[in-house]
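Teaching soon. Invent one.


***
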Amino acid sequence: MRSTLLVAVLVFLLAIEGVTYLIGVPATAVIGVLFGLLGAAVLVHHRGERWWRRLSVPLLGFLGLATVSLVWSMYPGGTAIGLLRTWLVVVMAIAIAVEFDWRAIVAGASRALFGVLAASWLFEIVVATIIRRPVVPLVPPIGVSPDELIDPPKLLQWSRNELVELLDGGRLQGVVGNATIFGFIAVLALAVFIVRWIAAGPGHRLVPALLTLLAVASLAATKATTAIVAGLVAAVLVGIVLVVRRVAPGRPRRLARVGVGVALLAVAVGVVVLRAPLLALFGRSSDLTGRVDIWATVLGVAAERPVAGHGWIGYWLPWIEPFDSLVTQHGVRQLQAHNAWVDVALQLGVIGVIVFAVLIGTVLWGAGRLIERAPAGSVALAALPLALAGILVAQSLAESRILVESGLALLVIVALAGCGAIRGVPGAPRAPHPATTPAPAEVRS
């Protein structure tokens, strides 16, 4: 029962767009509140372990800043709703970290990701073979009227019925109704499945190998360039830390870290300078499919209150000014800046960007240290937090999902893994207040 709830929560967070398309925002909100209350009950049950003393300080700092922004928010009602959504997700993630050990979380994530990928392929197959036309959400998304779904633009279609066109430019959107989001789910699944394949050992790798192939096929079917790049970034980060791990401890390793940091900075500058030809290699325009214009518009509004921002909201609410008319693309109102850093600048100002940067830096550092300290037989499990963090951070440059729903939940879990707040993470520092209850059994899959 406990493992089933873990998988259900993860599926809900990963595929929340598909849930809203199926049952609507109000019903989805009710499910989210129920899961949040369940998470709160778990945390109360474990209160004797003083789990709050093991939480990441930078994470608490960012969440605290978002919360107190209610004081100066330009839209206090919207900030209150945004904070409710944010804290529900955070409570769910912390409850998972407190209730389960690392192997159980990895196994539960594996089952959840497989479920979303399998449901997506089944959904697209049904659309292609039975319905045979594009499908719109059963319940209109927030801010969209039923009339707009009669002849909707492509951005409002749940499925574009492009399964048979995969070899001719078609892209699968999956149950989440968005090829980019589906691509990121696929690359997250690829990271988890590869780790499970390595950790399974000889003679037990057939199922993880098949799951890995499913993730590769899903990623290829989405043609999501940003997701592919995010996967490459994660692989490079893990590879670099594995090389540093082989350097002798002490001064040589510290020098290696400095060298790696300088090299990564140089690569980042090179990517920015050469972004046009690099994007051309992936068949993408230099304006990142209109994102550059979106960023310019949002940063223009952010400049009106540059220090502490307009107030936290997470994903934008389309009935609140200025989001009701801030960005429209291809006839569809956008509910994010398509860049987490730009969104943070808008909502929490320069202060927020600095706090968020500290959070991301400590998450990457903590995840990298796990690999350095992990025993030889557990490096794969220790590498997963850095792989997930790398994917999330790379995604944050093109999407704002790291601030909401599954992105935020994964950020919290990875942050807690790196600071030793989750039991059984290889290479984790000793928690100052370790859990006193026995670790639960691993989730089987």
In short: Residues 433-445 have pLDDT under 50 and may be disordered. DSSP finds 15 helices and two strands in the chain. The longest strand covers residues 328-329.
